[in-house]
Design brief:
ProC C-terminal domain-like fold, binds (2S)-3,4-dihydro-2H-pyrrole-2-carboxylic acid, single chain, binds 1,4-dihydronicotinamide adenine dinucleotide, 8-stranded mixed sheet, 10 helices, 15% strand, Rossmann fold, alpha/beta, 45% helix, elongated
Amino acid sequence: MLLVGCGKMGGALLDGWLAARTVDHVVVVEPQGAFPADAGAAGQRIVRCAGVSRIPPGFDPDVVVIAVKPQVMDEVVPGYAGFVRPGTVFLSIAAGKTIDYFTARLGADAAIVRAMPNTPASVGRGMTVAVPNAAVTPEQRRLCETLMGAVGQVAWVEDESMMDAVTAVSGGGPAYVFLLIETLAKAGVAAGLPEDLAMKIARATVAGSGELAARSIEPAASLRKNVTSPNGTTQAALEVLMADDGIQPLVDRAIAAATARSRELAS
Ligand SMILES: NC(=O)C1=CN([C@@H]2O[C@H](COP(=O)(O)OP(=O)(O)OC[C@H]3O[C@@H](n4cnc5c(N)ncnc54)[C@H](O)[C@@H]3O)[C@@H](O)[C@H]2O)C=CC1
Ligand SMILES: O=C(O)[C@@H]1CCC=N1
């Protein structure tokens, strides 16, 4: 594997792959980001290079993971055209950047998978949605499935235009959930709790609810109803949150804004 960019998301994936022992030989091109502390554990060979020109000559990766910011793509991607070979698949995790964007810079023969993971991949609980181009072989698709599946769930789509909304919902989704922790804690403080207790119970509540949602076969709406006693305290809160001007129109607007931004990042 060749990993280009080892920042927050590339690093989260690499952490997950190393922990799951999905990869054993990785060349990482990373000029300045954090490098995993356990890189080079027994049987794993991790080589860090400061730039594309430092990649060991003859290195022939089966997969090139592109994990740099969309804003630096123009200067980074053309440098990897030399790695386009029948046996190599490019796996991009960049927001917005389309398959056409990559074929314009790597050539029409390049096998490209456009994927959108999220940071819970670092603890094996990621969600990745991916779309392949026509040059991707079944074996390469399986390889990408194995990589993404090692750090969480995987869904494939055929319609690339869905990736903008996917980016908005699951790519950025963890940020909204962490914001929910912050807002719950702040509201707890406003209701009279000390800050540390408010943060502790907000964090544990979101984490516990996430775990319950992950393990339960019940729809989210039933899990919600299980908490809501008729005329009880939760109902009082939900009447605010589920009002016409409650959380749904707000989240609709947030997701629409992120989806639009993903489309803008395409060019
Ligand atoms: N952070 C997240 O939750 C998610 C991010 N993504 C995507 O992942 C990509 C990376 O995002 P983050 O990890 O958040 O950003 P980041 O800034 O943490 O990581 C990018 C890394 O690329 C490195 N870099 C810069 N120029 C480079 C070059 N020429 N060659 C190799 N590496 C270079 C930087 O030093 C940095 O460590 C973006 O395209 C983003 O859209 C996708 C899903 C979720
Ligand atoms: O905010 C971003 O643009 C990236 C893509 C999804 C999560 N982080």
